[in-house]
Write a structure and sequence with these properties.
- The complex is a heterodimer of chains A (about 200) and B (about 375).
- Helices cover about 35% and strands about 20% of the residues of chain A.
- Chain A is built from eight helices and seven strands.
- In chain A, strands 3-2-1-4-5-7-6 form a seven-stranded mixed β-sheet, sandwiched between helices.
- The longest helix of chain A has 11 residues.
- Chain A is globular.
- Chain B has two domains: about 260 residues, Alpha/Beta hydrolase fold, catalytic domain (Rossmann fold, 3-Layer(aba) Sandwich); about 100 residues, Rna Polymerase Sigma Factor, Chain: A (Orthogonal Bundle).
- The longest helix of chain B is centred in the C-terminal third of the chain and has 17 residues.
- In chain B, helix 4 packs across helix 6.
- With about 375 residues, chain B is α/β, with parallel strands linked by helices.
- The radius of gyration of chain B is 21 Å and the shape is globular.
- The chains are: A alpha/beta (about 200), B alpha/beta (about 375).
- At the A-B interface, helix 3 and strand 3 of A face helix 9, strand 14 and helix 11 of B.
Chain lengths: ~200, ~375
């Protein structure tokens, strides 16, 4: 697999990770990211996934995967047992985001989180002018069959971190349409489609 | 015979541990000579790295695949998984299955003749453990010249042997697939085993285990033990969908102590057919070996137990299995993960209960094929 095949946010995530580290990917999907990190960064990969289909793909890739529901917690894992815990495009899907985040911060020395930004201008416009639940490129589902149950904006995330004394070590803002543009950096909550953050206690 | 069958196969026999080199058992006693019955399917490659060791459950035997005679109605017990193109593809792998020590299908057990007294062992046969069974299998691997086993696989008691192998002989195990098993037998399972054993021991024909020369055998006791076993192999849901409250060959209740319900008839059938193929003493010895199993025995913790293992694991449990529940498999996986070992864990959704490890062959085939493809790349 070449780097360009990786979803853009996965690429940004992999650039944050130091070689040789222990990495736990929550909701690791088909194991694309972990396999990539194993090959390029020689990491020790661990995945947690709930979908049987994805688990089979992980096994076929040689990525060790544990079938479990991350909403049920990470109680079986010791504190600080991983260098990185990743939650890529999954936070908004969890039933208890607060519990998931605090558990991540417990078992991981550093956590990497990426999520679609509900404050993105096209989402705001959709709601404002059409008056319906936004159905846009980054959130393509109807309200009645979306896996996304806890939407948040980049601003929400910062407030959450401040309130819970979580340190934000790195932040990356992504917009697939306008790619590199000063607007994204200056007004991320309005112009970033996705936010990626490295946090720690 | 189907194209994906290994065809006609023959059980082979080997003798090890002849005095004065007896096998030292965990109990401290010695046993020798030990015969092992085993079958092999496929061809061992030049580098001897394509061996798959299949470990059977309580009532299994060495005949895992194919047919002994062309007139046989049923193939070996795991034929659905072993053969050309199947999960354990005999075009690629060399599959070995041996009858456990203590068994009654060709390997040395309580129904064998004690070479010293020239009489059947009966209850004078020493108590054996899962570790002892594995020790005997190790001798078989040595005999075949296999230093590294590509994968070890087994369900239930077979899974216990898989775990024991990876802990006892870490350098010999490249990968391992323990299915529907546990790091130790739970109190609940020991309880069921004990009821089964008491049924056998209380049978008037048991005679302290010395029934081999009698015309009457402790068949009732053994059948009851098997009936109890079968209840634990199914789930409430699978029993309900299989039998419900349906009556057997009748429209009305008999109002007598006869077989009214289908589920009763099923259990009777399982019990009656079991006694034709299994020895009551073997049942006592093997179920006791399962009761004694605790992989962490001799270690300070479960984590320490798995600290030195080298195999890559694929651990599989089944959601409705209450005899070897998923939580037990998770204990194994957690200990492995704490030690940063390579382990994948799948809890297969199934309503078949413990029996699922023999029935969910499609899911198992998909998982095992993928797992084997990646682990075999490393040594084939």
């Amino acid at each position: 697999m070449s780097m360009s095949d990786l979803r853009y946010d996965l690429k940004a995530i992999s650039e944050m990770i130091k070689p040789g580290s222990k990495v736990l990917d929550l909701g690791c999907g088909d194991g694309t990211l972990l396999e990539h990190l194993k090959i390029t960064k020689n990491i020790i990969p661990y995945g947690i996934e709930i979908s049987s289909e994805d688990i089979e793909k992980c096994i076929a890739r040689g990525v060790p995967v544990f079938m479990s529901d991350i909403d049920k917690g990470l109680e079986d894992y010791k504190s600080n047992s991983f260098d990185y815990v990743i939650l890529s495009q999954t936070l908004q899907v969890t039933k208890k985001p607060y519990k998931v985040l605090s558990e991540m911060l417990r078992v991981g020395k550093r956590c990497i989180i990426s999520f679609p930004n509900f404050g993105y201008f096209s989402i705001r416009f959709f709601l404002l002018f059409i008056g319906r639940m936004p159905k846009v490129k980054i959130l393509p589902f109807n309200w009645y069959d979306t896996p996304n149950i806890h939407h948040l904006t980049i601003k929400d995330f910062f407030i959450f971190c401040r309130k819970n004394k979580i340190r934000v070590l790195k932040k990356i803002y992504i917009n697939f349409v306008i790619k590199r543009c000063l607007f994204i950096k200056v007004f991320p909550n309005l112009f970033a489609q996705h936010g990626i953050f490295m946090i720690s206690k | 015979m189907k194209k994906d069958s290994v065809g006609i196969v023959k059980t082979k026999y080997l003798e090890f541990f002849s005095p004065p080199h007896e096998l030292k058992l965990e109990s401290g006693e010695k046993l020798g000579p030990v015969h092992l019955a085993y079958e092999t399917y496929g061809t061992l490659n030049r580098t001897k790295t394509n061996a798959v060791l299949v470990l059977h459950a309580l009532s299994g035997d060495a005949h895992a695949a194919g047919y002994h005679r062309s007139t046989d109605k049923k193939p070996g017990w795991w034929d659905i998984m072993i053969g050309p193109g199947k999960a354990f593809d005999t075009h690629k792998y060399y599959v070995i299955c041996s009858n456990v020590m203590g068994g009654c299908k060709g390997s040395t057990g309580p129904s064998s003749i004690n070479p010293i007294t020239k009489r059947t062992y009966g209850l004078s046969f020493p108590i054996i453990t899962i570790k002892d069974m594995v020790k005997a299998q190790k001798a078989l691997m040595d005999h075949l010249g296999i230093k590294k086993i590509l994968t070890l696989v087994g369900g239930s008691m077979g899974g216990m042997q898989v775990l024991q192998w990876t802990v006892s002989y870490p350098d010999m195990c490249h990968s391992a697939i323990p299915i529907a098993t546990a790091p130790y037998l739970s109190a609940q399972s020991i309880a069921f085993d004990e009821v089964g054993r008491q049924a056998i021991i209380s049978d008037p024909y048991f005679k302290g285990g010395n029934y081999y020369k009698s015309r009457k055998k402790p068949s009732r006791g053994l059948a009851i033990a098997r009936m109890i076993g079968h209840i634990t192999y199914l789930s409430e849901k699978s029993m309900h969908s299989k039998f419900g409250r349906n009556l057997q060959d009748k429209a009305k209740y008999s109002y007598r102590f006869l077989t009214d319900f289908q589920v009763e008839s099923y259990l009777h059938h399982q019990g009656d057919s079991f006694v034709k193929r299994f020895d009551a003493n073997s049942y006592l010895y093997i179920s006791k070996a399962m009761d004694y199993f605790d992989i962490s025995q001799g270690f300070s913790s479960m984590n320490e137990t798995f600290a030195r293992v080298k195999a890559k694991y694929l651990v599989v449990s089944f959601s409705s299995d209450w005899l070897f529940p998923p939580a037990q498999s998770k204990r194994i996986v957690n200990a492995l993960r704490q030690n940063l070992k390579f382990v994948s864990y799948v809890d297969v959704p199934s309503s078949y209960g413990h029996d699922a490890f023999l029935l969910e062959s499609e899911t198992l085939t998909r998982l095992i094929k993928k797992f084997l493809a990646t682990v075999s790349k490393e040594i084939l």
